[in-house]
Amino acid sequence: MSLPLQVSTVALEEITEIQRYFERDSVGASVQFRDALEHCLRIIQQFPLGAQVRHTIYRSAPIEEFGYHIIYSVRKNCIVVHRVRHMHRKPLKRYFS
Hints:
This protein is α+β, with helices and mostly antiparallel strands and 97 residues long. 40% of the residues lie in helices and 28% in strands. The chain starts with a strand and ends with a helix.
């Protein structure tokens, strides 16, 4: 089952912020993060119900080799990516802020 992805503006802003952080941190880290992110999104598209439900309707899929998770929900006709968060940040803000 492959569903189309919709990425929220908040998630896009977070992805941009994370990539800027990795660009400052080390050379090539932002490219590695982007590749890992795209890989994780492809897996989510192929197996939308594969990640564990973490909070009501929200699922959390880890981005390999990074401490970030993609927080998404599965609707009838699409997958909505709500957040891309580091899992050591404030727990409730992972989903609601």
